[in-house]
C-alpha cells in the first residue's frame, strides 16, 4: 500500500502529517519500540495499582461530569466505560466524511501517544488498526459543545474499537462486528480509564482543523492566482502591486501576496503605471491586503492547531512517572474554537473578494470593454446568449451563505450537564462552520477561475501569459472549454471544485 508512513511514537506531528493520513497519501505506523510501549503501558498499570489500593479516580471509580460524587463499587468499575460510550450514542446530523474521520482518528491517536492518558498500548494498536484497514466509524457531526471535549462524536470511535455500532469499510456502511469478524480483528475490552481517555478530548475539532488549515492555505494561493488573471482581464493597474509601495506596510503575508501577483504579471523592479486609470477598484487594488490578512494569520493558526494536536487533552491526566492523578480541564477546545472562528472569517473574505471581482468582469459599466457577462458569442448569437450571468448570481448566493456563517461560534457557550459544563468552547461547531465556509469558497473560486480565464481570452491576453500563469490557463482549458454559446455549467463547475479540493492547480511554492 502506501510507502510513506506517519509515525506515532509520542513525538510532534504536523498538520501535514494528519492531512496525508486523511487523504491516504501516507499510511500509519505505530511505534513498536520497547521504551515507547513501556511508557504507554505504565500509565494503565498505575491506574490498576490505584484501584487495588482503593484509590478514588474520577471517571474510574466515580460517575461522570456532575455525577462525579457518585461512587462506583469495585465490582462495577469494569462496566462503567461501556455505559460511557453507550449513553453518548446520541449524535445527529450528517456524518463526517472519510477524510474527516481519518483525521479525527489520527488526532486522537496522536494525543494518546503522548503517554499521559492511562491507557494501554493495546488501545493505540486498535486505533492504528482502524486506520490501516481504513475501517471508519460512522460519526455524526452534531452533538458536541467542545467541552468536555468531543464526547458524543468520540463515543462512536470508542464503540467501534469494541466492535459495536456501524463503520464504513470498502465504501460500504456495515456493522462493526461483521467487519471485525471478516478481518479477524479482536474487539477491544476496555480497562477502566480507557473509554474516558478516548472520548474526553478535542480530537474531532482538531482533526477537522488540520484539514481546514490546509484547504484555507491553498485557497489563499488560488485566490491570488485568480486575482492576477482578473488584473489582466480588466486591464488593471499593475502599479498597485509595486515592491516599493508594499515596503512601507511590511506585513509579511500581505507582501508575499503582492510579490506573487508581480511574478504572475512578470513585473520586475518598479511596476509600470497605467495612466489611463490611476486607481482600480478595491477588489483589485486591495487584493493583497484581503488575502494577506489570511496569509499573516496562517502561521499563528498553525501554532494553535499543532499545539492542540500534540497535547494530552483528556481528564484526568495520568502522570505515571510521578504517580500523580491530575484533575483539570485540558479537554476544553478554546484554542481550536478561536482558530476556527478566525480562519472561517478570513476565508469568507476571500469569497467576498472573488465575488466583487466577478461583478467587475461581467458588468459592461466596469469591465473596460469586455463583452456583457463575458459571453463568447458573436454575430446574431450575441442576442441569445447570456454567458456567466447565472453563474454570477450563484457566486453571490454562495458568498452570502459563507458570510452568514462567520458569526463566531465560540461566543455561544451554553451552560449544560447540570451546570457542570457551565462554560464550553463550541470548538467543534466552529470547525464545522469553517469547513462549510471553505466548501462554499471553493465553489466561488471555481466559478471565478473559469470566468477570469474567459476574460483573459476575450481580452486577447492569453498569448501574453508565461510561466505558471500559462500553466493555470492551460490546465483550466483542459477541463473547461471556452464559453462561446450558453450551456449548463454545473458539471464543469463540480469538476473544477473537485480539482481545487485535490489541490490540482499548480500554484506558488
Characterization of this structure:
The protein is mostly helical and 509 residues long. The chain has two domains: 5-201, Orthogonal Bundle (Fumarase C, Chain B, domain 1), CATH 1.10.275.10; 209-320 and 329-501, Fumarase/aspartase (Central domain) (Fumarase C, Chain A, domain 2), CATH 1.20.200.10. The protein is built from 18 helices and nine strands. It has a three-stranded antiparallel β-sheet with strand order 4-6-7. A hairpin with a 4-residue loop joins strand 8 and strand 9. Helix 4 (98-112) packs across helix 9 (203-233) and helix 16 packs across helix 18 (490-501). The longest helix has 33 residues, at 427-459. The model has no long low-confidence stretch (mean pLDDT 93).
Write a concise keyword list for the protein shown above.
509 residues; mainly alpha; Fumarase C, Chain B, domain 1; Fumarase C, Chain A, domain 2; 3-stranded antiparallel β-sheet; 18 helices; 9 strands
Give the topology, please:
Layout: E1 5-8, H1 15-22, E2 27-30, H2 34-52, H3 80-87, E3 92-95, H4 98-112, H5 121-133, E4 136-137, E5 140-142, H6 151-161, E6 166-169, E7 172-175, H7 176-183, H8 194-199, H9 203-233, H10 243-247, H11 252-264, H12 282-285, H13 287-309, E8 317-319, E9 324-326, H14 334-362, H15 389-404, H16 427-459, H17 467-477, H18 490-501
Parallel strand pairs: 1-2
Antiparallel strand pairs: 3-5, 4-6, 6-7, 8-9
Helix pairs in contact: 1-4, 1-9, 3-6, 4-5, 4-9, 9-11, 9-13, 9-14, 9-16, 11-13, 13-14, 14-15, 14-16, 15-16, 16-18
Amino acid at each position: 500500500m502506501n510507502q510513506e508512513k506517519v509515525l506515532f511514537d509520542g513525538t510532534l506531528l504536523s498538520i501535514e502529517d494528519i492531512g496525508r493520513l486523511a487523504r491516504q497519501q501516507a499510511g500509519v505506523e505505530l511505534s513498536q519500540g520497547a521504551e515507547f510501549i513501556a511508557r504507554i503501558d505504565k500509565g494503565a498499570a498505575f491506574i490498576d495499582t490505584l484501584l487495588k489500593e482503593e484509590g478514588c479516580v474520577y471517571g474510574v471509580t466515580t460517575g461522570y461530569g456532575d455525577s462525579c460524587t457518585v461512587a462506583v463499587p469495585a465490582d462495577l468499575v469494569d462496566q462503567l466505560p461501556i455505559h460511557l460510550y453507550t449513553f453518548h450514542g446520541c449524535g445527529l446530523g450528517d456524518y463526517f466524511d472519510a477524510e474527516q474521520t481519518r483525521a479525527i482518528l489520527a488526532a486522537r491517536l496522536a494525543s494518546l501517544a503522548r503517554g499521559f492518558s492511562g491507557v494501554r498500548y493495546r488501545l493505540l494498536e486498535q486505533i492504528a488498526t482502524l486506520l490501516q484497514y481504513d475501517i471508519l466509524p460512522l460519526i455524526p457531526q452534531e452533538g458536541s459543545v467542545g467541552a468536555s471535549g468531543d464526547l458524543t462524536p468520540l463515543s462512536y470511535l470508542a464503540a467501534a474499537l469494541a466492535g459495536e455500532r456501524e463503520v464504513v469499510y470498502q465504501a460500504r456502511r456495515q456493522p462493526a462486528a461483521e467487519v471485525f469478524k471478516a478481518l479477524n480483528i479482536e474487539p477491544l475490552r476496555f480497562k477502566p480509564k480507557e473509554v474516558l481517555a478516548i472520548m474526553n478530548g478535542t480530537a474531532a475539532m482538531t482533526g477537522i482543523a488540520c484539514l481546514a488549515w490546509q484547504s484555507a492555505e491553498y485557497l489563499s494561493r488560488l485566490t491570488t492566482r485568480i486575482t492576477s488573471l482578473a488584473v489582466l482581464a480588466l486591464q488593471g493597474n499593475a502599479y498597485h502591486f509595486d515592491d516599493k509601495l508594499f515596503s512601507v506596510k511590511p506585513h509579511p503575508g500581505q507582501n508575499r501576496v503582492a510579490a506573487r501577483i508581480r511574478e504572475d504579471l512578470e513585473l520586475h523592479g518598479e511596476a509600470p503605471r497605467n495612466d489611463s486609470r490611476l486607481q482600480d477598484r478595491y477588489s483589485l487594488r486591495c487584493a493583497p491586503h484581503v488575502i494577506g490578512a489570511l496569509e499573516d494569520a496562517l502561521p499563528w493558526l498553525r501554532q494553535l492547531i499543532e499545539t492542540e494536536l500534540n497535547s494530552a487533552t483528556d481528564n484526568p491526566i495520568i502522570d505515571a512517572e510521578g504517580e500523580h492523578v491530575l484533575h483539570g480541564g485540558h479537554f476544553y477546545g478554546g484554542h481550536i474554537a478561536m482558530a476556527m472562528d478566525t480562519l472561517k472569517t478570513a476565508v469568507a473574505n476571500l469569497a467576498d473578494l472573488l465575488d466583487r471581482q466577478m461583478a467587475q468582469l461581467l458588468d459592461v459599466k466596469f469591465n473596460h470593454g469586455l463583452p456583457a457577462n463575458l459571453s463568447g458569442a458573436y454575430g446574431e448569437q450575441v442576442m441569445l446568449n447570456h454567458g456567466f450571468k447565472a453563474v454570477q448570481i450563484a457566486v453571490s448566493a454562495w458568498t452570502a451563505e459563507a458570510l452568514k456563517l462567520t458569526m463566531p461560534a465560540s461566543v455561544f457557550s451554553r451552560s449544560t450537564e447540570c451546570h457542570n459544563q457551565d462554560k464550553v468552547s463550541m470548538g467543534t461547531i466552529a470547525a464545522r462552520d469553517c469547513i462549510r465556509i471553505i466548501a462554499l469558497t471553493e465553489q466561488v473560486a471555481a466559478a471565478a477561475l473559469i470566468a477570469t480565464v474567459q476574460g483573459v481570452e476575450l481580452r486577447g491576453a492569453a498569448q501574453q501569459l508565461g510561466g505558471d500563469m500559462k500553466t493555470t490557463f492551460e490546465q483550466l482549458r483542459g477541463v473547461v472549454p471556452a464559453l462561446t454559446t450558453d450551456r449548463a455549467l454545473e458539471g464543469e463547475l463540480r469538476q473544477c471544485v473537485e480539482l481545487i479540493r485535490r489541490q490540482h492547480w499548480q500554484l506558488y511554492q
